[in-house]
Amino acid sequence: MSALDPRRTFLQFVDPSELPSELVRGINDFKFQGTSAKVNFALEAPPPHPAFGDRVDHLRGFINVGPTIDYIERAFDDAKYGNYSRKPYVDGCVQSLVDPDMSPPGKHVMSCFVQYAPYELAEDDWDDVRDEFGDTVQAAIENYFPGFGGNVIHREVVTPKDIEAKVGLSEGNIFAGEFLTPQMFFFRPAPGWNQYRTPIHGYYQCGSGTHPGGCVMGAPGRLAATQILGDRSR
To answer: N or C terminus of the chain: which is more exposed, having fewer CB within 10 Å?
Structure first.
């Protein structure tokens, strides 16, 4: 069974010549184009907020920088034209407040999911703008948590290219393929191949690139397991 994205499942780990031409064509047409990045911070202290003083219990959940729908739409506008968001949406979590073992005593770590960051930039290379992007994300947080930058010991910027290289998600798409109507339901990953079987006997597919998609819900794996058990009982 492969839980990798459809491109790797069918075109990397299998010789495409062994597959039906319509399946190969469908996978070649499958769109990935990731738009997400991450910035991880090592901190002297949790993000300060003037409304809470020294309290940090309110930071044990998620921190969202995305104050309005208009803000998020404008962030996506940048990505539509091949640029990363100049005022990005940020979803942050200070994990060390929940699990102190994740950082040295008295220090903290914060992981930030960031949108939007296109896999292919219109005019730049991600390696050339890595630090600039990190500055942009840090400034977005600083805007709502004044003094945040002064607590930063170190940061790691993970671009869509890094996600592809380190995690194996084609084009850095965290859902193993775009959530578009032509790529959902019985079209995921390709028409005629949405029931977790593949043309190769005993080789099954699951993961976010299959129905019903990602979001860490486990449904593709459960449905694939049900399919396998059903096939074995025949």
So the answer is: C
State the chain's maximal CA–CA distance in angstroms.
64
Q: How many CB atoms lie within 10 A of CB 163?
A: 22
End-to-end CA distance of the chain: 19
In sequence order, the β-bridge partners of residue 90 are 65, 114
User: How many C-beta atoms surround the C-beta of residue 177 within 10 A?
Assistant: 28
Domain spans in the chain, listed from the N-terminal domain onward: 6-32+173-232, 36-167
pLDDT digits (tens, 9 = 90+) for 12-70: 999 999 999 999 999 999 999 999 999 999 999 999 888 888 888 888 889 999 999 99
Length of the chain: 234
Q: Which of 45, 84, 37, 90 is CA-nearest to residue 63?
A: 90
In angstroms, the CA 101 to CA 187 distance is 44
CA atoms of 41 and 150, how far apart (whole Å) = 12
